[in-house]
Structure formats: C-alpha cells, structure tokens
Amino acid sequence: MTLQIGPLTLDVPVVLAPMAGVTNAAFRSLCREYGAGLYVSEMIMARALLNRESAKTWQRVAFDPGESPRSMQLYGTDPVVVGEAVHLLCDQGMVDHIDMNFGCPAPKVTRKGGGSAVPARPALLRAIVKAAVKAATPYGIPVTIKFRIGLDDSLTTMLTTGKIGEDEGVKAIALHARTAEQRYSGHAKWDAIGELKQHVTSIPVLGNGDIWDAQDALDMMRKTGCDGVVIGRGCLGRPWLFRDLVDIFAGRAPQPAPTVGELAPIMNEHARRLVAWYGSNQGVRDFRKHTSWYLTGYPVGPELRRRLSNIASLDELGDLLGSIDPSAALPAGQPTLIRGHTNSARPVHLPDGWLDHPEDATPPGPEADEIVSGG
C-alpha cells in the first residue's frame, strides 16, 4: 500500500503528525528506523523564519544529515509572509515537502484569528494556500494541508477547506477528525473523513485521530476509504508503532509490545539522540516527559516514575531503567491508554466579528502567528 504525494512515493501510507516539542530530528530519526513513511518536522512559524532572529526556530528547521525526504510543517496567517517563507525554504533547497497547519485549537491562537479560525474565513484560507503553492511549484516541492472538521458541530468547514486545497493545487489533505471545540477530547469522528474523501477526489485524503495501534489505522482506512493515516499521540513513547504499521499493511500480525528489558535500550537511545542534538542539559530535560509515555501501562511504581521524570543525566536514566524487572510487560488485554494532550472540550474563542465576514481575506495580524501545538 503506497501513497503518492506529488513527486514523493511513500512505501506505506503513513505520515507522522507534527507535535511541538516532540517531533524533533532525534525523535524522527528513531521512528524512521522502525518503518517507512513521511516524518514531518515540528511546526515552524513563517514569520519567525523570515525574521531570522530565533536560534530555536533555526534549530527546529534543521534536519538530520541522512533524513530524506525532508518534510516541514509551516504555519502562518499572512499570504505574503507565507509565500516568502516557502520561497526561502525551496530556493535554499532546505525541504522536499511542506505541510501547512490550519488546525490548532488553542484559545490563545484562535482568539487572534489563527489556527482553526482561519478556515472560517475561506477567502483568507485560499489566499494563504495559493501563496504557498505558487512559491513551491517552480521548485517541484509538494504542499499539503492539515485541518479539523470545523469550529464546532454547528460550523463545519472541512468540505470547503478540502475543496480549496484541491482547487489551489495542494498534493494531499489531512483531516484531524475532531472540531476545534473538542480540542483533544472525546472520540475522533471517522465518518467525517469518509465524507471528505467522497467530496475531494483528485488528491489523497489522509485521516488523523484516535489511531492508537496499527489495527486502528487499518480500520480507519477500511471504514472511511481514506488514502493514508496521520499518526500523532499514538506514537508517543511507542516509536515501534511505525514497525507495526508496516507489518499490518503487509498483511502480517504486529509484534508484541516490548518488555521493559526490550524497552530500556529504546529509551536510552532516544535520550542519547536528544543529547547529541541539543546538548546534555537540554537533551536530558527534553527526555523527561517521554519517560511517562514510554512506561504508560507498565507495572512500574509511582516513586520510580517520579524519579524518572526528574533525571539529570543519561547515566541516571540508565541506572533507573536497570532497576526495573526486565521481564515486566504490559498486562494482557489492557485497553488502549491515551498519551499526550487530553484537553477537555471548550468553546472556541474568535476575534470580534470574525464570522460576520467569511469572504474577508485580510490577514489577522502578526499576533495571530503565535501558535502552540500542531492541531
């Protein structure tokens, strides 16, 4: 089961969703060793990229030397800024694929007209997408977009958004099958993916939401007819999920989840790569949040979990992991355990009068370019 995104051919129809503070080069390189697919970077702000002021932004832009294809998610709300950023990335040969985010549900973003608020103004959305595709096309770089069902159940925008993407020349679209109001709560509405697939027919439609194991991915594709899947929270602490996806798409049964004895080397390697990428202090601090994701569901006591969440060195990580019974395994028949965001649903905050002028293509202003998550 391959997936074609413009000139890119993926051996399996799997895309890693950008996640702030997670999908850095170290994590992407680890996941890539388990399976093929498209591994998208952390989100990059178009405006920050052009300003060239933030060392953190340029660190996020960087790819591992052996990383291919180099896939980046770009965010912006001003068509001119987005077009210039895409031109910069393409002209300097920095990327092989650009994904654009229109799904962030964070109130601090939507209340300024960014994130999930943009599709509620289709003229603005079209202008942004048009600018990105126009800048990328001369270089043969495919552009894709990711978005949500809509603001809430009373205002869905996915069909219009998908059609705009198709009309303006994007090479694939991805739907996180939740509304902005849902944030990351409740269940993803897979039926919406099927509806979008029937509406947009000339480019691949990818599904995202509640893929916690490989079987979920297969079930989503069978139920909705979508062309591929986008993996987000399901791979937190489980980079081998990409191996399981390769297996199940090839008709093989996924391998059992690792025991702690098999898990410890994976955790140590992930931490080592973060240290190599960021330096000792930042790398170790960054890995702390991963320890709880890796050990979710394993019979490890609260005290050890607490100590792991406060590690100060790679040696301390190794010693603590070595103190756990290596035969410890996930209990048989354990239900899916959610990792990552679990925000409860809340009303979507928008700028005053935002919904009164859907055909207004005026950018909301630089303050809308502050974003906190992938969506």
Task: Please give a structural write-up.
The protein is α/β, with parallel strands linked by helices. It is 38% helix and 14% strand. The chain is built from 14 helices and twelve strands. It has helices at residues 25-32, 46-51, 55-61, 79-91, 107-110, 122-136, 158-168, 190-199, 214-224, 241-249, 260-278, 280-294, 302-308, 314-322, and strands spanning 3-5, 8-10, 14-16, 38-45, 71-75, 97-102, 143-148, 150-152, 155-156, 172-176, 205-208, 228-231. An eight-stranded parallel beta barrel has the order 3-4-5-6-7-10-11-12, surrounded by six helices. α6 (122-136) runs parallel beside α7 (158-168) and α9 packs across α10. The longest helix has 19 residues, at 260-278. The relative contact order is 0.16. The model has no long low-confidence stretch (mean pLDDT 94).
Helix content: 25-40%
Radius of gyration: 20 Å
Q: What is the averaged pLDDT score? A: 94
Distance between the termini: 26 Å
Largest beta sheet: what is the strand line-up?
A: 3-4-5-6-7-10-11-12
Dominant shape: globular
Low-confidence regions: none
Number of strands: 12
User: Largest sheet, if any?
Assistant: 8 strands, parallel, barrel
How would you classify the helix and strand content by structural class? Answer: alpha/beta
- Give the assembly state of these chains: single chain
Approximately how much beta-strand content do the residues carry?
5-15%
Order of helices and strands: EEEHEHHEHEHHEEEHEHEHEHHHHH
Q: DSSP helix count?
A: 14
